[in-house]
Structure formats: structure tokens, C-alpha cells
Amino acid sequence: HGSWSIDGMDVFVTTADELLEKLAEQYSLRIEEDGCSVILEGQDISLWRSDAESTYFDTVGVGAPDYFGKG
Q1: pLDDT digits over 8-66, tens only?
Q2: CA distance linking residue 60 with residue 12, whole number of Å
Q3: Is 16 helix (H, G, I), strand (E, B) or coil?
Q4: Strand partners, 29
Q5: Which residues lie below 8 Å from residue 71, measured CB to CB, with a gap of 6+?
């Protein structure tokens, strides 16, 4: 896979717990699907992992403006 960074953190190398902790300091996070899906509110970016207990996120989603809407 390639790499994808948010605020200098590689999404596929940084643990999900660390990412969530750091991102929550700067963004409003909407957590869905029992922790498998995380949406950065107002950024049109989502993170997904197949299991809420997975150490790393599997996928980054980038939507058109307002694609993810408000939760």
C-alpha cells in the first residue's frame, strides 16, 4: 500500500489509538460502526478498519465537500 498522512502521521503506520488521540486534539471526530469508522468532521476525510480492535486503520476515504455531512 501507499502512505497517507494526516498532520504528519502516516495513517497506515501509526496505531489507531495514537491517531485518534492526536486527531481528537484538533478535530471533531464522529465515530461510527462500533469504532470501525471515524469521520473527521468538516474535513471530508474518513478512516476505516475492519474491526474496532484492529491496531491500524485499513482505509482512508476522501469525500467531495460535505460528502460525509453531519452526524
Answers
A1: 999 999 999 999 999 999 999 999 999 999 999 989 999 999 999 999 999 999 988 88
A2: 9
A3: helix
A4: 40
A5: 30, 32, 39, 41
Q: Report the DSSP beta bridge partners of residue 6.
A: 9
Residues with Cβ < 8 Å from 67, sequence gap 6 or more?
Answer: 44
Residue 42 corresponds to which cell in the numbers above? 468538516
Nearest to 52 by CA among 5, 16, 23: 16
39 close to 46: Cβ distance less than 8 angstroms: yes
Which letter does DSSP use for residue 18 in this model? H
Tell me which amino acid residue 3 is.
S
Q: Are 14 and 23 in contact (CB under 8 A)?
A: no
